[in-house]
Specification:
binds iron/sulfur cluster; pyruvate-formate lyase- activating enzyme; globular; alpha/beta; 19 strands; Arc Repressor Mutant, subunit A; three-stranded antiparallel beta sheet; nine-stranded mixed beta sheet
Length: about 450
């Protein structure tokens, strides 16, 4: 793949990651708990299955690059008390949920879900399973931090029914690890990986990150060699999102230690070529999987979807999300819980839910969401299909995007064939930029109303 630094310079700009559309900064407090309760009641007969998300915000230490809603603590009593509130929240939503509905997917994220001790992992999963009907073949996944993880944690996950795990590695180079305050030796990663395989996990994802301080092509090449030698089923290679104005702790990263644009470009090329050579298929933004993985099949059959947990094969599920900052979703509504832990607990203690803001999407939002999803998941847009599905002409509806699309085509990121827009190989690393012309909110924003996103590359 030929990539020019000039392309990176042109397209390295602030933009959304499109895990939702409209994106979370446009959720509003005008849509609150009462609206969410009404939506829950009204959508029980929708026929849609469910995806359950649980957020555990605690971590033992703070990684300086972290972009998650998390609380660094060594005080386990905080998790004890958090679980009490979480159970109440689960109970309140479950009481409104039709018992006929099935959960096809369960995901625990954070923070670090395995901050919970093995007994509490079992207790939380049992609680969830006692309140919602979880399909026997459900995809049940958990994010892991290999540090502080014991065989007992893994046994608790396996015995509870988890069948997928995602392990944060980021980079194995010691200098990089020290600069981001996440020191985890290679031997530890290998040990935990071995425990997971022994426990029967046959879907293991490893998270890596490019753009971290002191990263070089040579150092990251070694990390890739070692991770590929393990043979994970999936790899997610994220770009470090440096947003110190939003995540104050990122100021602990020395900006002059971050790789410059040519190095970031070289890291991207290295990562894509090395993973392709090792037989991994590039799914779309940041994600790779072995060719026989169901996520690859889903992309080929155009049933892949993108939501707050990344790419999913469960497109038509309502997401019921529990815990601080968690985001729930029905076909037409997004809601987010308060991001403040004390406030979350106060709201649950007062007998309600912890909904802080949300949005009911318009038909315009819906059309644009499906279009952006087509770029992010299918890597193409079929105009005839669009015209038929929405009863409007693509070129008329997106008239204001056409100049940008021509520019993207001139730069080789997409091809404009009759009736078809297709993302090129080069365009795959610019998916956010290719989606942005379809985003009406980006066009409307003024300097004052503009949310500050991370850079696309
Ligand atoms: S373990 Fe994950 S959630 Fe916790 S601080 Fe590190 S990156 Fe953030």
């Amino acid at each position: 793949m030929e990539l020019a630094t000039s392309l990176l310079e042109k397209y390295s700009k602030a933009g959304p990651r499109y895990t939702s559309y409209p994106t979370a900064p446009y959720f509003t407090e005008a849509f609150g708990e009462k609206d969410w309760l009404d939506e829950l009641k009204q959508t029980q007969s929708s026929g849609r299955d469910m995806s359950l998300y649980v957020h555990i915000p605690f971590c033992d230490t703070l990684c300086y690059y972290c972009g998650c809603n998390m609380v660094a603590t060594h005080d386990y009593s905080k998790a004890d008390s958090y679980l009490c509130y979480l159970f109440q929240e689960i109970d309140r939503v479950a009481a409104l949920t039709s018992p006929a509905r099935m959960a096809r997917q369960v995901h625990w994220g954070g923070g670090t879900p395995t901050f919970l001790n093995p007994a509490d992992i079992r207790r939380l999963f049992q609680h969830l399973a006692s309140r919602f009907k979880i399909a026997p073949d459900a995809e049940i996944s958990c994010e892991l931090d290999p540090r502080e993880l014991s065989r007992e944690h893994i046994a608790a996950l396996a015995e509870s029914g988890f069948n997928r795990v995602s392990m944060g590695v980021q980079d194995l180079d010691e200098k990089v690890q020290k600069a981001v305050n996440r020191v985890q030796p290679e031997a530890l990663i290998q040990q935990v990986y071995g425990w997971l395989r022994e426990a029967g996990f046959n879907s293991i994802n490893i998270d890596l990150m490019v753009g971290l301080p002191h990263q070089t092509v040579e150092s990251f090449s070694l990390t890739l060699d070692k991770m590929l030698a393990l043979g994970p089923d999936r790899l997610a290679v994220f770009n470090y999102a440096h947003v110190p104005w939003m995540k104050k702790h990122q100021k602990l990263i020395v900006e002059s230690d971050l790789p410059d644009l040519p190095t970031k470009l070289a890291l991207q090329k290295l990562m894509m070529e090395r993973l392709a050579d090792a037989g991994y298929v590039y799914i779309g933004m940041d994600h790779f999987a072995k060719a026989d993985d169901e996520i690859v099949q889903a992309q080929r059959s155009k049933t892949l979807y993108r939501n707050f947990q990344g790419y999913t094969t469960h497109k038509d599920c309502d997401i019921y999300a529990f815990g601080v900052s968690a985001i729930s979703q029905t076909a037409e509504v997004y809601v987010q819980n308060t991001k403040n832990l004390a406030e979350y607990q106060r709201r649950i203690a007062s007998g309600g839910l912890a909904t802080e803001r949300g949005l009911r999407i318009s038909r315009d939002d819906l059309i644009r969401r499906e279009t952006i999803s087509g770029i992010m998941c299918d890597l193409e847009l079929d105009k005839a299909k669009f015209n038929q599905q929405w009863g409007v002409d693509f070129d008329v509806f997106f008239a204001d995007a056409l100049d940008d699309l021509k520019d993207l085509a001139a730069d080789g990121l997409i091809t404009l064939e009759p009736g078809l827009i297709r993302v090129t190989e080069t365009g795959r690393i610019f998916l956010r930029n290719i989606a942005m012309p379809f985003d009406a909110y980006l066009r409307q924003q003024t300097t004052e109303t503009k949310p500050r996103y991370s850079k696309t590359l």
